[in-house]
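re the bet — no i am not wrong, look at it urself. input seq straight from the record:
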Amino acid sequence: MKRPAWLPDSLVLMLIATVALAMLVPVHGRGVAVLDVLTQLAVALLFFLHGSKLSRQAVLEGLLHWRLHALVFAATFVLFPLLGLALRPWLEPLVGSTLYLGVLFVCALPSTVQSSIAFTSLARGNVAAAMCSASTSNILGMALTPLLMAAMAPAIGASAGAGAVHLSWHTFEGIVTTLLLPFVAGQALQRWTGPWVARHRAWIRISDQGTILLVVYGAFSAATVQGLYRHLPLATLLALLGVCALLLALVMPLLTLLSRALGFSREDEIAIVFCGSKKTLASGVPMAQILFAGQAVGLLVLPLMLFHQLQLMVCAPLARRYARQAA
């Protein structure tokens, strides 16, 4: 039976239900560690399945697709920061200087890995290129994000001190152990696991969606336990949400137009739109603790929390629409 046009996307409904659950029954205490382990296992399984599914030729083409990566990196580390600076006359009076610095921090962050690849997969895009682009973006972001923040907000760089910003390899290690190694294992075992994966594509879709739901639940649980959403008036939260929506409304259509104008395929366009419009929460929060040491980190990461949730909500129906067009 055809789905009625007025009915919300099923993944969006699951995301809304997950957010409600996280706000009503947040995970805390020892449960946080358990949820972290489950999320890591889900992400590892996701990449193992993708490694089993993708042909080695597709992976090689993804690695060598430099034009796609250049466009994604330009959107992540050039377009977003320029938008954040250009909108300052309107944004700073709207949300205040502290939260505006948080918005600039969002603009300086690298792309997220898990959801970019999961949505690219759901939309039937170039998963190999998305994986290479998003992972490389995270590694480069360890150096580029602090440099961008020091350039865009000198007060932040000065308060941290030139020698106080120490780049950690924790993010790099996480990418290698949680994402790269399972993917390589899937590639190595593809001869045996590939036929099973091909016969059970529904499991890959469940893995994609389940990973996204786990990330959303963990993020909103942390925000609920910390009481981030109780420290600000509702009007300010709505204003921040509007700022995040504005950034997405500017970046995503522009990336779509640029992808088509530059002659990228539909699969490449999907990878560009999803990788180039995302900002990482997993790497952003630890980075904020270093860059904003001694400041109100909880408030400064609030724009990132909102942006992270909004990008998931926006990309879910978009990925479904891409998939329907490919069917």
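see?? Confidence is low (pLDDT under 50) at residues 155-167. told u. also The longest helix spans residues 234-261. so pay up
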